[in-house]
Amino acid sequence: MAEIVIRNTGERIQGDAEVLAFLEKQEVLYEHWEAAKLPEHLQEKFVLSDEDKTEILGTFDEEIRDLASRRGYQTWDIVALSDATPDLDAILKRFEDVHTHTEDEVRAITAGRGIFIIKGTEDVGYFNVELEAGDVISVPENKPHFFTLMENRQIVAVRLFIEKDGWIAHSYADPEFKAAK
Hints:
By secondary structure, the chain is an alpha+beta fold. The protein has six helices and eleven strands.
């Protein structure tokens, strides 16, 4: 289950109802899929073959298609990152800049852990959403954010897109974020 940390105050929000209510107020979609349905041999595997990716997508096909039909997503893929990923630090450096997109940024975590840092309402400021297997999040278009790995540096996630070419990041310079780090 996801947990929230308000960066300005250090307040931690836990529990299904509390996390969901907070994210709804911030206009961030949050759902939970049953991570245990992923075959055991893929639950802690972070270097994936094309066959592994196909198996993950097949395992969550019903959930993916349901979300896609409700939200207008047209295509999806798998991203897998770990210390075995070539140039992982350079990849993370690209992710770790506040940016926006002209469509939602969606992650359905199937293994590992990750974190979205999102700009909330004026009274909240930036907040962290700590995600684990089963957590599904959609950051709305034009909402400043970035995604990175947590200390374990391992994640597998389904990404869903409206545009068939995927989303493009637009840099968002924000002095408020620098102060919140």
